[in-house]
Amino acid sequence: MSRMPRMDRLTVVLALPLLAALLLPMLSFRPNRIAEHQGRTLVELFGPFWAGVIVAMTLLLSVVLLLERRPWLRGLLLAPVLVGLFLLLGHAASGLLSEAPPAARASPGPGFWLAFGALVLLMVDTVSRAHATTGAKTLLLIGTVAAIAILLRSGVLADLSIAAEYRGRASAFHGALIDHLTLAFGSFLAALVAGVPAGMLIQRRPALRDAVMNLLTMIQTIPSIALFGMLILPLAWIAANLPGAAGVGIRGIGMAPALIALCLYSLLPIVANTVAGLDGVPPAVTEAATGMGMTRAERRRLVDIPLALPVILTGARIVLVQNIGLATVGALIGSGGFGTFVFQGIGQTATDLILLGVLPTVALALLTSAIMDLMIALFRVQSP
Protein backbone atom coordinates (compact mmCIF):
# COMPACT_ATOMS: atom_id res chain seq x y z
CA MET A 1 0.00 0.00 0.00
CA SER A 2 1.53 3.30 -1.13
CA ARG A 3 2.04 6.01 1.45
CA MET A 4 0.66 9.50 1.05
CA PRO A 5 3.41 12.05 0.39
CA ARG A 6 4.20 14.17 3.42
CA MET A 7 3.10 17.79 3.27
CA ASP A 8 5.73 20.47 3.67
CA ARG A 9 5.15 22.20 7.03
CA LEU A 10 6.52 25.61 6.08
CA THR A 11 4.37 25.62 2.95
CA VAL A 12 1.33 24.88 5.12
CA VAL A 13 2.11 27.94 7.24
CA LEU A 14 2.60 30.19 4.18
CA ALA A 15 -0.32 28.80 2.20
CA LEU A 16 -2.79 29.87 4.89
CA PRO A 17 -2.15 33.64 4.48
CA LEU A 18 -2.08 33.16 0.71
CA LEU A 19 -5.59 31.71 0.81
CA ALA A 20 -6.75 34.24 3.41
CA ALA A 21 -5.65 37.04 1.07
CA LEU A 22 -8.39 36.01 -1.36
CA LEU A 23 -11.00 37.09 1.18
CA LEU A 24 -9.49 40.54 1.74
CA PRO A 25 -9.76 43.63 -0.50
CA MET A 26 -7.18 43.33 -3.29
CA LEU A 27 -7.45 46.97 -4.27
CA SER A 28 -8.14 50.19 -2.38
CA PHE A 29 -10.16 52.87 -4.17
CA ARG A 30 -10.36 56.55 -3.20
CA PRO A 31 -12.34 59.32 -4.91
CA ASN A 32 -9.32 61.62 -4.46
CA ARG A 33 -5.78 61.62 -3.11
CA ILE A 34 -6.54 62.02 0.60
CA ALA A 35 -10.03 60.54 0.82
CA GLU A 36 -10.77 57.44 2.88
CA HIS A 37 -9.92 54.06 1.36
CA GLN A 38 -12.71 51.87 -0.01
CA GLY A 39 -11.74 48.22 -0.37
CA ARG A 40 -12.54 46.22 -3.51
CA THR A 41 -12.63 42.41 -3.36
CA LEU A 42 -11.94 39.95 -6.18
CA VAL A 43 -15.64 39.57 -6.91
CA GLU A 44 -16.13 43.35 -7.15
CA LEU A 45 -13.08 43.73 -9.41
CA PHE A 46 -13.43 40.76 -11.78
CA GLY A 47 -16.94 39.41 -11.28
CA PRO A 48 -18.01 36.07 -9.73
CA PHE A 49 -16.77 33.85 -12.58
CA TRP A 50 -13.20 35.15 -12.86
CA ALA A 51 -12.94 35.54 -9.09
CA GLY A 52 -13.87 31.84 -8.83
CA VAL A 53 -11.21 30.97 -11.41
CA ILE A 54 -8.56 32.88 -9.42
CA VAL A 55 -9.61 31.15 -6.17
CA ALA A 56 -9.53 27.72 -7.84
CA MET A 57 -6.07 28.33 -9.32
CA THR A 58 -4.77 29.52 -5.96
CA LEU A 59 -6.13 26.40 -4.25
CA LEU A 60 -4.51 24.21 -6.92
CA LEU A 61 -1.19 26.03 -6.51
CA SER A 62 -1.33 25.56 -2.73
CA VAL A 63 -2.01 21.82 -3.04
CA VAL A 64 0.84 21.34 -5.52
CA LEU A 65 3.27 23.29 -3.34
CA LEU A 66 2.22 21.29 -0.27
CA LEU A 67 3.11 18.01 -2.00
CA GLU A 68 5.93 19.05 -4.33
CA ARG A 69 9.43 19.35 -2.84
CA ARG A 70 11.61 19.73 -5.94
CA PRO A 71 12.93 23.32 -5.84
CA TRP A 72 13.17 23.79 -9.61
CA LEU A 73 9.52 22.85 -10.13
CA ARG A 74 8.37 25.02 -7.21
CA GLY A 75 10.31 27.93 -8.69
CA LEU A 76 8.76 27.41 -12.13
CA LEU A 77 5.31 27.57 -10.53
CA LEU A 78 5.91 30.54 -8.24
CA ALA A 79 7.70 32.87 -10.69
CA PRO A 80 4.80 33.27 -13.16
CA VAL A 81 2.32 33.49 -10.27
CA LEU A 82 4.24 36.45 -8.82
CA VAL A 83 4.27 38.18 -12.20
CA GLY A 84 0.60 37.36 -12.70
CA LEU A 85 -0.27 38.93 -9.35
CA PHE A 86 1.10 42.28 -10.53
CA LEU A 87 -0.59 41.94 -13.92
CA LEU A 88 -3.92 41.34 -12.17
CA LEU A 89 -3.31 44.35 -9.94
CA GLY A 90 -2.60 46.63 -12.90
CA HIS A 91 -5.58 45.33 -14.89
CA ALA A 92 -7.90 45.78 -11.91
CA ALA A 93 -6.68 49.34 -11.32
CA SER A 94 -7.17 50.27 -14.99
CA GLY A 95 -10.68 48.83 -15.05
CA LEU A 96 -11.67 50.50 -11.79
CA LEU A 97 -10.39 53.95 -12.78
CA SER A 98 -11.83 53.87 -16.30
CA GLU A 99 -15.26 54.76 -14.92
CA ALA A 100 -14.08 56.94 -12.01
CA PRO A 101 -13.47 60.73 -11.78
CA PRO A 102 -10.04 62.00 -12.89
CA ALA A 103 -8.94 62.61 -9.29
CA ALA A 104 -9.69 59.02 -8.23
CA ARG A 105 -6.85 56.81 -6.99
CA ALA A 106 -6.32 53.05 -6.82
CA SER A 107 -3.66 51.38 -4.71
CA PRO A 108 -2.84 47.82 -3.59
CA GLY A 109 -5.11 46.58 -0.83
CA PRO A 110 -4.33 44.37 2.18
CA GLY A 111 -5.18 41.24 0.21
CA PHE A 112 -2.52 42.03 -2.38
CA TRP A 113 0.18 42.72 0.22
CA LEU A 114 -0.64 39.54 2.13
CA ALA A 115 -0.56 37.43 -1.04
CA PHE A 116 2.63 39.10 -2.24
CA GLY A 117 4.37 38.54 1.10
CA ALA A 118 3.38 34.87 1.21
CA LEU A 119 4.54 34.25 -2.38
CA VAL A 120 7.86 36.01 -1.81
CA LEU A 121 8.53 33.96 1.32
CA LEU A 122 7.66 30.78 -0.58
CA MET A 123 10.09 31.80 -3.35
CA VAL A 124 12.86 32.60 -0.85
CA ASP A 125 12.34 29.21 0.79
CA THR A 126 12.48 27.54 -2.62
CA VAL A 127 15.77 29.24 -3.53
CA SER A 128 17.32 28.32 -0.18
CA ARG A 129 16.35 24.65 -0.68
CA ALA A 130 17.94 24.55 -4.11
CA HIS A 131 21.46 25.00 -2.68
CA ALA A 132 22.33 26.83 -5.88
CA THR A 133 25.87 27.81 -6.80
CA THR A 134 27.03 31.42 -6.58
CA GLY A 135 26.83 31.69 -10.37
CA ALA A 136 23.24 30.43 -10.42
CA LYS A 137 22.26 32.85 -7.65
CA THR A 138 23.86 35.70 -9.61
CA LEU A 139 21.86 34.82 -12.70
CA LEU A 140 18.69 34.58 -10.59
CA LEU A 141 19.34 38.04 -9.13
CA ILE A 142 19.97 39.55 -12.57
CA GLY A 143 16.81 37.91 -13.91
CA THR A 144 14.73 39.21 -11.00
CA VAL A 145 15.98 42.77 -11.43
CA ALA A 146 15.39 42.57 -15.20
CA ALA A 147 11.84 41.25 -14.69
CA ILE A 148 11.01 44.07 -12.27
CA ALA A 149 12.46 46.66 -14.66
CA ILE A 150 10.43 45.27 -17.59
CA LEU A 151 7.28 45.24 -15.46
CA LEU A 152 7.76 48.87 -14.42
CA ARG A 153 8.62 50.03 -17.94
CA SER A 154 5.70 48.18 -19.53
CA GLY A 155 3.14 50.61 -18.12
CA VAL A 156 1.01 47.80 -16.68
CA LEU A 157 1.10 49.48 -13.27
CA ALA A 158 0.77 53.04 -14.57
CA ASP A 159 -2.75 53.50 -13.19
CA LEU A 160 -1.75 52.79 -9.59
CA SER A 161 -1.69 55.82 -7.32
CA ILE A 162 1.98 55.39 -6.44
CA ALA A 163 2.78 55.70 -10.14
CA ALA A 164 0.77 58.93 -10.23
CA GLU A 165 2.79 60.23 -7.27
CA TYR A 166 6.01 59.35 -9.10
CA ARG A 167 4.95 61.10 -12.31
CA GLY A 168 4.26 64.28 -10.38
CA ARG A 169 7.64 64.12 -8.63
CA ALA A 170 9.95 62.40 -11.13
CA SER A 171 12.77 64.96 -10.95
CA ALA A 172 12.53 65.14 -7.14
CA PHE A 173 12.58 61.33 -7.00
CA HIS A 174 15.80 61.13 -9.01
CA GLY A 175 17.40 63.77 -6.78
CA ALA A 176 16.26 61.88 -3.68
CA LEU A 177 17.79 58.68 -5.09
CA ILE A 178 21.18 60.38 -5.50
CA ASP A 179 20.98 61.86 -1.99
CA HIS A 180 20.00 58.51 -0.48
CA LEU A 181 22.85 56.68 -2.21
CA THR A 182 25.28 59.39 -1.12
CA LEU A 183 24.17 59.11 2.50
CA ALA A 184 24.16 55.31 2.65
CA PHE A 185 27.28 54.50 0.65
CA GLY A 186 29.27 57.62 1.62
CA SER A 187 28.92 56.89 5.33
CA PHE A 188 29.61 53.20 4.67
CA LEU A 189 32.89 53.91 2.85
CA ALA A 190 34.01 56.33 5.54
CA ALA A 191 33.26 53.76 8.25
CA LEU A 192 35.05 51.05 6.26
CA VAL A 193 38.19 53.17 5.87
CA ALA A 194 38.21 53.96 9.62
CA GLY A 195 36.75 50.74 11.02
CA VAL A 196 38.90 48.04 9.42
CA PRO A 197 42.25 49.59 10.48
CA ALA A 198 40.78 50.25 13.95
CA GLY A 199 39.76 46.60 14.25
CA MET A 200 43.21 45.46 13.15
CA LEU A 201 44.80 47.81 15.69
CA ILE A 202 42.78 46.71 18.72
CA GLN A 203 42.60 43.01 17.90
CA ARG A 204 45.79 42.12 19.79
CA ARG A 205 45.36 44.77 22.51
CA PRO A 206 42.67 43.57 24.98
CA ALA A 207 42.53 46.75 27.10
CA LEU A 208 42.23 48.99 24.06
CA ARG A 209 39.72 46.60 22.50
CA ASP A 210 37.41 46.79 25.52
CA ALA A 211 37.55 50.60 25.63
CA VAL A 212 36.86 51.04 21.90
CA MET A 213 34.08 48.44 21.78
CA ASN A 214 32.35 49.95 24.82
CA LEU A 215 32.49 53.42 23.25
CA LEU A 216 31.08 52.19 19.94
CA THR A 217 28.37 50.21 21.74
CA MET A 218 27.35 53.34 23.62
CA ILE A 219 27.08 55.29 20.35
CA GLN A 220 24.96 52.50 18.87
CA THR A 221 22.42 52.82 21.69
CA ILE A 222 21.72 56.51 21.01
CA PRO A 223 18.43 56.92 19.06
CA SER A 224 19.06 58.08 15.49
CA ILE A 225 16.95 61.23 15.75
CA ALA A 226 18.75 62.19 18.98
CA LEU A 227 22.19 61.67 17.41
CA PHE A 228 21.23 63.77 14.38
CA GLY A 229 20.07 66.52 16.74
CA MET A 230 23.22 66.34 18.89
CA LEU A 231 25.37 67.08 15.84
CA ILE A 232 23.46 70.22 14.79
CA LEU A 233 25.05 72.68 17.27
CA PRO A 234 28.71 71.61 16.94
CA LEU A 235 28.55 71.52 13.15
CA ALA A 236 26.77 74.88 13.04
CA TRP A 237 29.55 76.32 15.22
CA ILE A 238 32.23 74.85 12.93
CA ALA A 239 30.48 76.28 9.85
CA ALA A 240 30.33 79.73 11.47
CA ASN A 241 33.86 79.87 12.89
CA LEU A 242 36.06 77.75 10.65
CA PRO A 243 36.88 79.47 7.32
CA GLY A 244 35.87 77.39 4.33
CA ALA A 245 33.84 74.86 6.34
CA ALA A 246 30.49 76.05 5.03
CA GLY A 247 31.88 76.08 1.50
CA VAL A 248 32.51 72.33 1.57
CA GLY A 249 29.03 71.56 2.89
CA ILE A 250 29.58 71.50 6.65
CA ARG A 251 26.59 73.05 8.42
CA GLY A 252 24.21 72.33 11.26
CA ILE A 253 21.53 70.77 9.09
CA GLY A 254 21.63 68.98 5.77
CA MET A 255 23.90 66.24 4.47
CA ALA A 256 26.88 66.69 6.83
CA PRO A 257 25.30 65.75 10.20
CA ALA A 258 23.47 62.82 8.61
CA LEU A 259 26.68 61.47 7.04
CA ILE A 260 28.59 61.78 10.32
CA ALA A 261 25.81 60.14 12.34
CA LEU A 262 25.48 57.23 9.90
CA CYS A 263 29.26 56.78 9.89
CA LEU A 264 29.28 56.60 13.70
CA TYR A 265 26.48 54.02 13.64
CA SER A 266 28.44 51.98 11.08
CA LEU A 267 31.62 51.62 13.10
CA LEU A 268 30.50 49.00 15.62
CA PRO A 269 29.57 46.20 13.13
CA ILE A 270 32.68 46.81 11.00
CA VAL A 271 35.14 46.99 13.91
CA ALA A 272 33.53 44.04 15.72
CA ASN A 273 33.52 41.83 12.61
CA THR A 274 37.10 42.78 11.76
CA VAL A 275 38.20 41.70 15.23
CA ALA A 276 36.09 38.51 15.04
CA GLY A 277 37.43 37.66 11.59
CA LEU A 278 41.06 38.09 12.65
CA ASP A 279 40.42 36.12 15.87
CA GLY A 280 39.05 33.31 13.72
CA VAL A 281 42.27 32.78 11.75
CA PRO A 282 43.56 29.31 12.79
CA PRO A 283 46.80 29.51 14.83
CA ALA A 284 48.26 26.71 12.72
CA VAL A 285 47.92 28.85 9.60
CA THR A 286 49.61 31.78 11.34
CA GLU A 287 52.46 29.56 12.52
CA ALA A 288 52.89 28.10 9.03
CA ALA A 289 53.07 31.59 7.51
CA THR A 290 55.67 32.61 10.11
CA GLY A 291 57.66 29.45 9.41
CA MET A 292 57.72 30.35 5.71
CA GLY A 293 59.56 33.54 6.61
CA MET A 294 56.69 36.03 6.31
CA THR A 295 56.96 39.24 8.27
CA ARG A 296 54.08 40.35 10.48
CA ALA A 297 52.92 42.84 7.83
CA GLU A 298 53.09 40.22 5.09
CA ARG A 299 51.17 37.75 7.24
CA ARG A 300 48.45 40.34 7.83
CA ARG A 301 48.20 41.20 4.15
CA LEU A 302 48.53 37.75 2.59
CA VAL A 303 47.01 35.43 5.21
CA ASP A 304 45.01 37.08 7.98
CA ILE A 305 42.96 39.58 5.97
CA PRO A 306 42.01 37.16 3.13
CA LEU A 307 40.83 34.59 5.70
CA ALA A 308 38.96 37.22 7.72
CA LEU A 309 37.41 38.89 4.67
CA PRO A 310 34.11 36.91 4.62
CA VAL A 311 33.46 37.88 8.26
CA ILE A 312 34.40 41.52 7.57
CA LEU A 313 32.06 41.56 4.57
CA THR A 314 29.26 40.18 6.75
CA GLY A 315 29.67 43.25 8.96
CA ALA A 316 29.74 45.47 5.88
CA ARG A 317 26.47 43.89 4.73
CA ILE A 318 24.83 44.71 8.06
CA VAL A 319 26.10 48.30 7.83
CA LEU A 320 24.86 48.89 4.29
CA VAL A 321 21.36 47.60 4.97
CA GLN A 322 21.25 49.55 8.24
CA ASN A 323 22.43 52.79 6.58
CA ILE A 324 19.94 52.52 3.72
CA GLY A 325 17.14 52.36 6.29
CA LEU A 326 18.51 55.01 8.66
CA ALA A 327 19.19 57.44 5.80
CA THR A 328 15.42 57.87 5.62
CA VAL A 329 15.40 59.50 9.07
CA GLY A 330 18.00 62.02 7.91
CA ALA A 331 15.30 63.84 5.95
CA LEU A 332 14.17 65.32 9.27
CA ILE A 333 17.29 67.51 9.31
CA GLY A 334 17.24 68.32 5.60
CA SER A 335 19.63 65.67 4.27
CA GLY A 336 17.30 64.66 1.44
CA GLY A 337 16.81 61.08 0.33
CA PHE A 338 13.66 58.99 0.17
CA GLY A 339 12.75 60.03 3.70
CA THR A 340 11.60 63.35 2.21
CA PHE A 341 8.61 61.61 0.63
CA VAL A 342 7.92 59.60 3.77
CA PHE A 343 7.63 62.65 6.03
CA GLN A 344 5.77 64.67 3.40
CA GLY A 345 3.29 61.82 3.09
CA ILE A 346 2.86 61.62 6.86
CA GLY A 347 2.20 65.37 7.01
CA GLN A 348 -0.34 65.20 4.17
CA THR A 349 -1.93 61.89 5.26
CA ALA A 350 -1.02 60.58 1.80
CA THR A 351 -0.28 56.86 2.02
CA ASP A 352 0.92 56.57 -1.56
CA LEU A 353 3.45 59.36 -1.07
CA ILE A 354 4.78 57.47 1.95
CA LEU A 355 5.08 54.34 -0.20
CA LEU A 356 6.98 56.34 -2.82
CA GLY A 357 9.70 56.73 -0.20
CA VAL A 358 9.37 53.37 1.52
CA LEU A 359 9.26 50.97 -1.44
CA PRO A 360 12.49 52.13 -3.17
CA THR A 361 14.24 52.13 0.21
CA VAL A 362 13.20 48.52 0.84
CA ALA A 363 14.10 47.51 -2.73
CA LEU A 364 17.52 49.15 -2.45
CA ALA A 365 18.19 47.43 0.88
CA LEU A 366 17.16 44.01 -0.47
CA LEU A 367 19.24 44.43 -3.64
CA THR A 368 22.29 45.53 -1.67
CA SER A 369 21.88 42.64 0.77
CA ALA A 370 21.63 40.13 -2.08
CA ILE A 371 24.75 41.51 -3.79
CA MET A 372 26.71 41.45 -0.53
CA ASP A 373 25.60 37.86 0.13
CA LEU A 374 26.95 36.87 -3.29
CA MET A 375 30.25 38.62 -2.56
CA ILE A 376 30.55 36.86 0.81
CA ALA A 377 29.87 33.47 -0.80
CA LEU A 378 32.42 34.19 -3.53
CA PHE A 379 35.18 35.11 -1.08
CA ARG A 380 34.43 32.07 1.07
CA VAL A 381 34.96 29.87 -1.97
CA GLN A 382 38.21 31.61 -2.88
CA SER A 383 39.64 31.71 0.66
CA PRO A 384 42.56 29.32 1.08
Descriptive overview:
The structure is a single chain. With 384 residues, this protein is an all-alpha fold. The protein is 75% helix and 3% strand. A three-stranded antiparallel sheet has the order 2-1-3. Strand 1 (27-30) and strand 2 (38-40) form a beta hairpin. The longest helix has 33 residues, at 170-202. It is flat, with a radius of gyration of 25 Å. The model has no long low-confidence stretch (mean pLDDT 86).
Fold blueprint:
Elements: H1 9-20, E1 27-30, E2 38-40, H2 42-67, H3 71-97, E3 105-108, H4 110-130, H5 134-153, H6 161-168, H7 170-202, H8 206-221, H9 224-241, H10 255-279, H11 283-291, H12 296-326, H13 339-348, H14 351-382
Antiparallel strand pairs: 1-2, 1-3
Q: What's the CATH class label of the largest domain? A: Mainly Alpha
Output mean pLDDT: 86
Number of helices: 14
Helical proportion, percent range? over 70%
Termini separation: 52 Å
Gyration radius, rounded: 25 Å
Instruction: Give the topology string: H per helix, E per strand.
Output: HEEHHEHHHHHHHHHHH
Which architecture of the largest domain would the CATH scheme give at its second level?
A: Orthogonal Bundle
In CATH terms, the superfamily of the largest domain is MetI-like
Largest sheet: 3 strands, antiparallel
- Number of DSSP E strands: 3
Structural class of the helices, strands and pairings? mainly alpha
Estimate nothing, just give the exact number of structural domains: 2
**Beta-strand fraction estimate:** under 5%
Strand order of the largest sheet: 2-1-3
The CATH topology of the largest domain comes to MetI-like fold
* Poorly predicted parts: none
The shape, in one word, is flat
